[in-house]
Automatic annotation (TrEMBL):
Pfam families: DNA_pol3_chi. One of its GO terms (molecular function) is DNA-directed DNA polymerase activity. GO terms for biological process: DNA replication; positive regulation of DNA-templated DNA replication initiation. This is DNA polymerase III subunit chi. PANTHER family: DNA POLYMERASE III SUBUNIT CHI. It comes from Candidatus Dechloromonas phosphorivorans. SUPFAM superfamilies: DNA polymerase III chi subunit. InterPro entries: DNA_pol3_chi (IPR007459), PolIII_chi_sf (IPR036768).
Length: 140
C-alpha cells in the first residue's frame, strides 16, 4: 500500500518542495513531481536551477529527451511514465493513479485554499485505508 506523507505549514510551498527534492537527490532517490498547473511546474523548474549556489539537482520535464536519465521529473501527466517509486503532488487534487507509487509526498503551504484542499485529500486517503504521516515544516 502507498505510504502517504504530508509536509505542511510551508511558508513557501515551492521552496519547501525543492528542498525535499534536493534531499531525495542527495540520497539517490528518484522522484516524479506532479504539477499539472504550468506556472507551478515552471516555478519548480526555475527554483531547482537556482535554489542552491553550491549544488545542482538534475531535473527536467517528463517529455524531455533526457527524462529516462534524469532523477527528478516534472510532469502534468502520470499516465505515460514508468517510474512508480516516489510521487510528489503539487496539485490541489488527488493525483490520478497515485496508488501505483510506493510513496506519495504532499507539500502544503500556509494559504487557506492550499490547507483546505489538503484536508480534503487527507480525508480521501484515510477513507480508503491509507495511513497518513505528517511533518510540520512551520517548526523549522
Amino acid at each position: 500500500m502507498t505510504q502517504v506523507f504530508f509536509y505542511h505549514g510551508a511558508s513557501d510551498k515551492i521552496a519547501a518542495a525543492c528542498a525535499l527534492l534536493g534531499g531525495a537527490y542527495a540520497k539517490n532517490k528518484r522522484m516524479l513531481v506532479y504539477a499539472p498547473e504550468n506556472d507551478v511546474a515552471s516555478n519548480v523548474d526555475r527554483m531547482l536551477w537556482t535554489h542552491s549556489a553550491l549544488g545542482f539537482v538534475p531535473h527536467c520535464r517528463s517529455d524531455s529527451p533526457l527524462a529516462a536519465e534524469t532523477p527528478i521529473l516534472i510532469t502534468d501527466n502520470l499516465d505515460q511514465l514508468s517510474q512508480d517509486d516516489r510521487l510528489m503532488n503539487l496539485s490541489q487534487v488527488v493525483p490520478p493513479g497515485f496508488s501505483r507509487f510506493h510513496s506519495l509526498i504532499e507539500v502544503v503551504g500556509q494559504e487557506e485554499s492550499d490547507r483546505s484542499s489538503a484536508r480534503d485529500r487527507v480525508r480521501f486517503y484515510k477513507d480508503r485505508g491509507y495511513e497518513v504521516r505528517y511533518f510540520d515544516l512551520g517548526e523549522r
